[in-house]
Amino acid sequence: IHRNVLDSNTNEVIPITLAQMGFGWVENNPITNFFFLNYFGGLLMLVTCPACFLIGESEWRTRNENAVLIYQEMERRKKKAEEWEEDYKASLPPPPKERAGTKTKQRMVAFAEMSGEKEVATLQQEEEKKEEEMGIFGKIKEFYNKADSMAAAQALLLNKKLEDEGIVEKITDESGLKVIGREAAKELEDEDKN
Question: Is 0.70 topped by the overall pTM?
Answer without folding.
Answer: no
